[in-house]
Structure formats: structure tokens, C-alpha cells
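dumping this here before i forget
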Amino acid sequence: MRSNRLLILIGLVVFAGLGLAWTIWGGELRAMVELVMDTVRNAGPVWFFGAMAVLPLFGFPLSPFTFAAGPVFGPQMGVGAVMVCAVGAVTANMALSHWIAARALRPLMIRLMGWLGRTLPEVPSHSAAKLTFFVRVIPGTPFFIQNYLLGLARVPFGIYLIISVAVSAAFIVVTILAGDALVRGDKTMLAIAGAGCAVVGLGMHLIRKKVTRVLRERRAQNDAAR
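structure:
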């Protein structure tokens, strides 16, 4: 539990730093995001989905890609192909993020934590799935921070990727469906996509509450056993 709390603390510190940066340079960052999105949209689907796989490694937000994919490329490629390409791009991004965090960033973090007199936690295998899911469904946490936190914790790659892809794919699919339906003026499909968003959101919320309750019960048991 201490390792989990330390991971969350690291994430909160990074998130606070990003929030401060957004407050100071928010206008410039928004203009840069719009410029990049215009460039990759005009370049075509190969560059678009390639950028979707690579740019979030450097902190670029994922949401502009997911919201733009359906309206921009749905009429050209078909909504099913857009979904496959989007999920594939995000899967590639998550795999690369885990490798970078576990192999490149973790040694640096170990040295930093050692200099601070602390140790960098490594998640026990029995907690890996719950922690991965919990990190994925925390509202407001940037996508790339989720990836790097889980990689730094050395969550087993298979568990990390399966749960991460499942959670991300659910949101990507309903978002692309909604965007494509909005452009085509298909009110029926838009309503279905909206209902899908509500179901996915509610399901994640309920599972998150259950995971939180289980973690609290386990913590209480551990405290009582001491």
C-alpha cells in the first residue's frame, strides 16, 4: 500500500506541475495543439495515426486525435477501419511508453529517489491488475502520465497492456462513433454512441468504487494484523 501511495503522490506532483505550466502558457499550448492537429489531419491517415502513436509519448494530449478521427477519416476509410487504426495506434503508444518508463526512466528515478533517501516502489504481482485499472480510470489524469507511472512501477507488461487497451478501446470506440455520427447527421447513431458513453462511464465508475472498497478493506486487514 505504501508503494501505491508513493506512485499516486508522484503522479500528483507531476500533474500539479503540468497544471501550473498550463496556467502560465495555456494559450500558447492550445495554439500549438491546433497547429499540430491541422498539420497531421491534412497529411492523411498514415501520418495522423502515426502521430497518434508517437506524440503522446511527449505529453501531447490524446483527446484531439480521438475526437477528430471519426469526423475526418470516417467518410474516407469507414468507421470500422478508423476504430481499428485508432486502437492500434494507442496500443503502440502504450507499449512504447511502458518500455521507455521501465527501461530508460526508471534507472534515473531510482537514482533520484536514492538521493532523496527513498526507494522507488515496484508493484507486487498480486496488486498489478487492480493498480493498472485504478490508474486508468482516475478522472483527469493525463494519458501519458498514466503510462509512465505504470511503467515506472514495472507493472508486468502483459497485465498492463491487456487492461490498458481494454479501458482505452472502450472510450475510443464510443468517441469515434459519436464523432462520425455527428458529421453525418445520423441522430440514431449519435444517440447510440451517447448511450454507449454513459454505459462505459458508469461501468468504470462502479468498478472503480469496488476496487477502492477492496483496497480499503485490505488496508484495514493489514492494519489489524499488525
